[in-house]
Amino acid sequence: MPPSAFSTTLSSTANYPPGFWPGRYVDATPYRPARGRYSPRRRVEDASATPWVVDLDRVDPQGEDMIRAIVRELRIRFYQKRSVTSYRHALAGFLGWLGRLPAAATRDDVRDYLELMVEGGASSSWVSVVLSAIRTAFDKMCGRSITLGLMTPRRPHRMPMVLSTQEVVRLLQAAPSLRDKLLLGLMYATGARVSEVIRLRWGDFDFDRGVVRIWQGKGRKDRDVMLPESFRSVTTELARLQGAKGYVFDPSGSGRHICQRTAQRAMERTVALAKLTKPATCHTLRHSFATHLLEHGTDIRFIQKLLGHERLETTTLYTRLAQPDRQRVQSPLDTLVGVPPPASPSISATASAALIPSLPRAPTTLRLSFEITSIETADCNLSACAQIQIATRDHRVILDGIRVRELRAGWFSVDVPLAERWDAALRWLTPAERDRILDPTFYALLQKELPARARRAWAASSGAPAVSTTSVS
Question: Looking at 89, 309, 405, 436, which residue is catalytic?
């Protein structure tokens, strides 16, 4: 069909103007894609129309990609590190159980998963964390509302464990080191959490005002707690020696504080040494602090400020534990039979002095015994074997393997074995005594004493080993 006939047919049927062909130019050539300024542009989207971190209505990400985006958003919003870790584990567990893409999750899936956790024996606190993680990720950051209508699980109201004053005395007396005594003593004396105590610096101690500043505690809040007067002397001296910028509990001096698990192990070890029957933890000292303050008549609002509680209802828990009128209130049965009320516990002066930490004293005099075990002569030169005996309170430590040789007349050499050979024996000594044994001045003492002892033993006609005792200051 000629173009004119085709044009006439279209014009008559579709009412197109004369000379117009759909999809073609006037000369009957097909349309070409537009280029340059006339090329089609990408659609401009309004960012305010999609305020979600992950818009599940428009994208369909994998579970790992969604968790990565949620964790990044949590960090941007300055969630606590432990909260981010808990939310990541909770979301990974839910999406792994779901077995489908996150966009396919429904409200019934959340209920089924929480029911499975409850039947599996999960605690109410962990179920609350999982529900909070799903609500934060899907509802607040993805706009899905799959937790709408789900309430936070009810938690059991348990009474906290509290130590008596006698048990606190036994605990602090049983602390094996200055660090443990100061660590546990500050937790009880200030009521601070274990995570707050291990991050204390010496610059946080205000000795003039008698307070300790807790920086960025739970809820990212600062507060002041009292500085115990019984710890003032030792903390003042340690702060002067270590500097204001250092951590209080920095055993290696590396500029890093101990971890929370290290403090918990110290508490477990001290509880075992004190032979306490109660399952006491680091947080038990915080409970005991608040309870004992209430028993001594401290206002509950002041205790709330010291503990850093946001709501007063949290602090009123300790009113059920405190016994402020124990001396006046008796059981009716005790009143009938005439049993006198219990007397308030008292602590002896010796026991109270043991509670106050103090710096280690200077080491006492070390008593050493030099013994020549065998004597030989070769080419008119003296050669002898010697050992050192150190008398402690419970053991007698022997350091052997020492050899004295006469190189020429009047010139002696003392050969001391490597320190690894004495490791088993030195374990019975205190750290201060071990340092003195391994000090170079101790080797100088051996060079001075042992040749003379060997010369006298060789000169003795009886040939009996020569034993002498000396003191090292």
Answer: 309
Is residue 286 part of the annotated active site? The answer reads yes
In the residue annotation, 157 being an active-site residue is answered as no
The model's pTM is 0.61
Q: Is 309 among the catalytic positions?
A: yes
Query: Of the listed 283, 305, 434, 436, which one is catalytic?
Result: 283
Catalytic one of 170, 286, 292, 455: 286
Angle at 376 between CA 373 and CA 379, to 5 degrees: 160
What is the b/e burial string over 166-196, where b = at least 16 CB atoms within 10 angstroms of the residue's CB? ebbbbbbbbbeeebbbbbbbbbbbbbbbbeb
Is residue 243 assigned to a domain? yes
Kindly state whether residues 130 and 203 are assigned to the same domain.
Answer: no
Q: Is 31 a catalytic residue?
A: no
Surface-to-core class of residue 357, CB atoms within 10 Å of its CB (0-12 exposed, 13-18 middle, 19+ buried): buried
| Of the candidates 193, 229, 195, 230, the residue with the CA atom closest to the CA atom of residue 211 | 229
Active site (annotated) includes residue 193:
yes
In this structure, what CATH number is given to the domain that contains residue 114?
Answer: 1.10.150.130
Phi and psi torsions of 470, nearest 5°: -140, 165
One domain, residues 188 and 245: yes
- Whether 258 is covered by a domain: the verdict is yes
- In the set 107, 218, 305, 405, the catalytic residue is 218
Identify the domain containing residue 23 by its residue range. Answer: 3-30
Residue with tokens 């349309």, as numbered in its chain: 31
Domain assignment present for residue 148? The answer is no
Is the residue at 43 inside a domain?
A: no
CA nearest neighbour of 124 among 134, 114, 133: 114
Instruction: Render each residue's pLDDT in the chain as its tens digit; 473 residues.
Output: 444 444 444 444 455 556 555 677 777 788 777 777 777 777 665 555 668 888 888 888 998 999 999 999 999 998 988 899 999 999 999 999 999 999 999 999 999 999 999 999 999 999 999 999 999 999 999 988 899 888 888 888 888 889 988 899 889 888 888 888 899 999 998 999 999 999 999 888 988 888 899 888 887 888 888 888 888 888 888 888 777 788 888 877 778 888 889 999 999 999 998 899 999 999 999 999 988 888 888 888 888 888 888 888 888 888 877 775 555 556 575 566 666 666 656 666 556 666 777 766 555 566 777 777 777 776 666 777 878 888 766 667 888 888 887 777 667 777 777 767 777 777 777 777 777 777 767 777 777 777 877 777 777 644 444 444 454 44
The total number of structural domains that make up the chain: 4
Q: Is 81 a catalytic residue?
A: no
- Among candidate residues 113, 188, 247, 318, the one labeled active-site is 318
